[in-house]
Amino acid sequence: MAGHRTRGTARGLAVAVAAAAVLSGCSGDGGSSGNPTHAASQAASAAASLASQASAALASATAEAARRIDGIKGAVNAKGDVRLGTTATDANGRKAVPVTVTNSTSQARTYTVQVDFHDAGANLLDTVVVTVDNVPAGGSKNATAFSNRVLSGNVTADVARAVRY
Predict the structure, then answer these.
(1) Full-prediction pTM beyond 0.85?
(2) Beta strand pairing status for 109-118 and 82-84?
(3) Picking from 2-11, 33-42, 43-52, which range would have the lowest pLDDT averaged per residue?
(4) Which of 122, 110, 104, 134 is closest to 160 using CA atoms?
(5) What confidence score (pLDDT) does residue 59 get?
(6) What are phi and psi of 20, to 5 degrees?
(7) Radius of gyration of the CA atoms of the chain, in A
(8) Kind plus residue range of the DSSP H or E element containing 163
(9) Which ranges of the chain does DSSP label H, i.e. alpha helix?
């Protein structure tokens, strides 16, 4: 399902870039770069290439997140122990979201949390894994999840998976 939404985002990006190229190509100098059909073709090709790269990066991040969490021995589902704050943009343009883990057990635990970033259309844009070490028994500890790359627009975050061990 996430792959389907990613392809939709890629198609939308390709159409938007192609449309912009056509509009800007109409005011060109009359050479081959001013040919709207040629400009649209080049823009669509560039957008498809960028979308493909973004899709590959997202697939890689998703696979890495699954590998990290699935590789933890003796982990227990702890999604209910994790709360996210409001998503903001850091100084480098990446999205950042505060992560608060509350340990309800009687021993200090480590938590590994997968945070997914989505656009306003619920399309998956990025996924990251945050490890919060030594959360005290009965206590809480904070961390921050940062997107892997610059994400623009209205981006929200949610806890996809969380385990404690």
Answers:
(1) no
(2) unpaired
(3) 2-11
(4) 122
(5) 75
(6) -65, -40
(7) 21
(8) strand 156-164
(9) 2-25, 36-70
